Amino acid sequence: MGVEVVVEGLTKRFGSQTVWSDVSLTLPAGEISVMLGPSGTGKSVFLKTLIGLLKPDAGHVWIEGVDIAKCSRQDLYEIRKLFGVLFQDGAMFGSMNLYDNVAFPLREHTRKSESEIRQIVLERMELVGLTGAENKLPGEISGGMRKRAGLARALVLDPEILLIDEPDSGLDPVRTTYINQLFIDLNAQIDATFLIVTHDINTARTVPDNIGLLYHRHLAMFGPREMLLTSKEPVVAQFLNAQRVGPIGMSEEKDADQLASEEGIAMPPLPPLPLQIEPSSGIPRRGQRESGAWCRENGVVPPAGSFPERAYAMSLH
């Protein structure tokens, strides 16, 4: 079962450069959250700070009563056992076959026998669709297969928190669709707390229970998926709908002249909200909400075509 991650006032700098400051949010236990942001806004830095690979300059990260920003090395070592991490490129050992790559954490951190390790490794490889590829080297397989192998390795220690860094980078739209469904099915099965860093807007609109957006050295917004997808806050609306009009430019923030040139140009209307991907099993996940539930609870009328409008209107009464 996943655990809650509470971030309070987190600030990270490299020298005189502030990456982001005063970031506060809560990753709900067992739910899928996505972190978005223009390139260079420190999304990967945020993941590394959550797991203690980087120390923040201020703030706290609370996990099961332990502040990993301030705790001892021994406490950090124990807390890290709750995590599984999928890095951007899979981070496979090139000289090891996939079986040994996936088995590595079990051999390094447990006292399990080789027969126990074999059972776990084969189960996880089957889970990510890599049965039969155990003896292949990372250089012999596609980028998508390396990502799935990295995911299998992240799962072998039964993590309660899964951090996933740009799983869609280098993947075509079809493979991205498959891996998105895999995340939903995994969350339904293992009930871990997921945080996915991505640039893929379709992933952000259809996979998570919660969305966050880092922009201009701060957290612009974090909350339930429907809250951000219906937001008219310029940065959020521009990014989540991949629009040119808005405060984000080629160099992150548009200058005054660029913004002035857009005066009088209305931002395009928000598109319909897509349905969230459901588990293949048909059994709802813990964090899954009924489509339109957040909108109804908060009196927000979603863009036309988002849900069966008649059913939505009736539910308001």
Automatic annotation (TrEMBL):
Residue ranges constituting the ABC transporter domain according to the UniProt record: 5-241
Keyword Glycoprotein: no
Pfam family of the protein (one): ABC_tran
Region (Disordered): 264-291
Superkingdom field: Bacteria
Keyword list, A-Z: ATP-binding, Nucleotide-binding, Transport
Gene3D superfamilies reported in the protein's UniProt record: P-loop containing nucleotide triphosphate hydrolases (3.40.50.300)
GO molecular function list: ATP binding; ATP hydrolysis activity
Designated name of the protein: ABC transporter ATP-binding protein
Organism lineage string: Bacteria, Bacillati, Actinomycetota, Actinomycetes, Propionibacteriales
